[in-house]
Design brief:
The protein is α+β, with helices and mostly antiparallel strands and 156 residues long. Helices cover 19% and strands 36% of the residues. It has a single domain, classed as Oxidoreductase, molybdopterin-binding domain (Sulfite Oxidase, Chain A, domain 2). It starts with a helix and ends with a strand.
């Protein structure tokens, strides 16, 4: 019974995030317009990781996830200690989700260049098809396609 209650609590946090914002994505429970996303600085990295269909080697470009979260006021760059107990839940339109530790992407800690990709190999992914890519992951399990929601959560 306790397990069921825990699962229901987790689902209650995740399910509302599955609906995409009409013009962009949802970050920290609020719409983040595509027009704001388009104004953020873009980085490009060549990323390789394994998939169920073999290796993927591609050049992804878009803003850093940390930059997006900062622009959405979902993180406080002036309070770096809060990053060590927080994590980012990224959810795609199909309900697939992955977790990234906030300390991994916080400049005060690991400063990993996780990208909210808008292009792959120079070609636009298209409206509603943003993709989070995590460099240096051996497998692409945290590479979430068609991102609709990004939520910053804090561990108890």
């Amino acid at each position: 019974m306790k397990l069921l209650l825990v699962l229901l609590g987790v689902l209650a946090q995740i399910l509302p995030a599955w609906s995409a914002a009409p013009d962009g994505i949802e970050i920290a429970g609020a719409p983040f317009p595509a027009a704001v996303l388009a104004k953020l600085p873009v980085v490009q990295d060549k990323i390789s990781f394994g998939t169920d269909h073999g290796p993927l080697n591609a050049a992804f470009a878009g803003p850093l996830l940390w930059t997006v979260l900062s622009a959405a006021h979902a993180v406080d760059p002036a309070a770096p200690k809060s990053a060590v107990r927080s994590y980012v839940l990224v959810t795609g339109s199909d309900g697939y989700s992955a977790v990234i530790a906030l300390g991994e992407i916080a400049p005060a800690f690991e400063d990993k260049r996780v990208i909210l990709a808008e292009t792959m190999n120079g070609k636009p992914l298209g409206a509603g098809h943003l993709r989070v890519v995590v460099p240096e992951d051996a497998r692409g399990g945290r590479s979430v396609r068609d991102v609709v929601s990004i939520t910053v959560l804090t561990a108890p």
